[in-house]
Every structure is written in C-alpha cells, then in structure tokens.
Amino acid sequence: MQIYWAKINKIIEETSEVKTFMIDCPEDFTWEEGSHTHLALEGFNAGDKPNRSLIRHMSISTLPHENSIGITTRIREQCSEFKTILRNLEVGDEVAIFKTHSNVPLKREDKNVYLLSSGVGLATFRPLVLDYFQRADNVNQIHSLNIDSSRDFLFTNIFESVPDKKFTAQFVDNRNNYYEEVKNLAADKDGIFYIVGSDEFLVQNIDVLREQGIKPEQIMLDKRENLLTEFLTFS
C-alpha cells in the first residue's frame, strides 16, 4: 500500500464550523471526481498496528487541475481526538493520504443527474459539478439539492443555478421541505440519483426514492460494492 505524506499548503474557513485543508499533490498521486481517500495524522503508524483513531475516510473536494488535494470537513467545538488534532494543524504540517478510490464518478448516460446531500456531504459533489462544467457530454442536466439546518451553505459560488449550463442548485434548511423536493425530483423515473450523507440520511432518501418507483440501479452511493447491497436490497 502506497502511503503519501504531503504538506498542507492552505486552510480555508468555509463557514464557522467547516474548513477545507488544501494538501500538496504528490508527484504520482491521481484521482477522479467523486473520490474519497484515507486521511491520517502524524503517529498513526508509529506502533505495531495502525492507530485507527488517527485515520478518517474523507471525500476529496477538488479536481486534479486545481493542483491541491482538498479535504473539506466540519469541526464542531466538541469533537473527536482526530478532529481536535486536525483543527490545530497549520500550513506546512504534514498528513498522510492512502487508499484513494471513487465510488461515485459522474455517469454520462444521456440522463438527468440529481445530487442529494446533507451538510458537508456537498464536498463530494463539488468535483462532479466542476467536471460537468468543464465537459457536459452525455449529461442532460444536473440538479443539486442540499439540506443544512445551520443555513451556512457551502460552496455557494459553485452551487448556484446556471440555466445556460443546465445546472440547478437548491438549498433547504428543514427535513419536510427537503423530502418534498426529493419526491418532486423522483417524478423523473429515468434519472440518476446520487446520495451523500450519514447512513441514516442514505436510508431515508433511498426509502423515499423507492416509494416513488426509482430502481436500485438508478441510485448512486459513496459505498463499496459489499455495502451497496446492504443499502439497496429491498424485500
């Protein structure tokens, strides 16, 4: 397994609780839209076994042409050991990156694409939208729907509706409005629905979509194949 150690080159305060850590790109490190990676902090591999409390599975919120690996995460006042250490890191500090993979690349099947996310889950979709803006081939249109009760919505400079590019961005701050909108979007029985958020959020969205007649193969989750079956199997 290749472990890359790389320096933080910039820390962006997205909101009062959300930061993006921009990390130098190692020379042979590559990824695609919708990728996640394992982010590890100093000391994670100092013992006989990896210290899992110093490792997290994180989405990459940038594309390769941005020349930095972006990790966007929410850090609350009361947080884990990992987030506490992360919060105190500075430009120039090193982190480790390994096991990078994409479960949710942008599908180009001449269909409408719907991006459903909760809070900082929007970070997973930022590269998909940028990729679409660069090359819209075989995607009819994209609609993003994000729920964030804090109302500190992320990436509003990118997630804003652009009719010319057939891109619509929608933000809501409560569950009732959110799930009503999901039902409305599910009127498109041929669309592709991406969902990113907590496991509970995934289950609730899948239930709503399935009730509206959306098939499992139309639902994209940031999960490995073995876990996909658990989420998408219905009696």
From TrEMBL:
Taxonomic source organism: Ornithinibacillus xuwenensis
Protein name as annotated: Dihydropteridine reductase
Lineage top rank: taxon: Bacteria
Residue runs in coiled coils: none
InterPro entries: FAD-bd_FR_type, FNR_nucleotide-bd, Riboflavin_synthase-like_b-brl
Domain (FAD-binding FR-type) ranges: 1-107
